[in-house]
Design goal:
Elements lengths: L3 E4 L2 E4 L4 E7 L8 E7 L6 E7 L4 E3 L7 E6 L3 E6 L8 E7 L15 E2 L3 E6 L1
Parallel strand pairs: 2-11
Antiparallel strand pairs: 1-3, 3-8, 4-5, 4-9, 5-6, 7-8, 9-10, 9-11
Amino acid sequence: QVQLVESGGGSVQSGGSLRLSCAASEYTHSNFCMGWFRQAPGKERQGVACVDSTGRTSYADSVKGRFTISREGAGNLVLQMNNLRSDDTAMYFCAASLDTVSYPLSPEGYPIWGQGTQVTVSS
């Protein structure tokens, strides 16, 4: 069973930067997506960014130009977040699919999840 462990969350002022990392214990699937999702209190979980096995990336409109998703090595996922805003405050989760997904930013295609890391942006 693949396990995902996030790190790098914290508190930062508006305009600041954070780098989230996700370490995967093992990943042998040839077609997959790995992504970052976030959930603020009282709101639904939403897709932030994802990258598939070909390297193709997808971003939510709200983070385009500010966030960058990348893979490092065989199973590590990174989210570089710049120019953070207060509405970026949420619990951030790393997730992985077992095959290609039709809607990369929809949580429904991802059966494997990490425990989450909190990001708090103060204005």
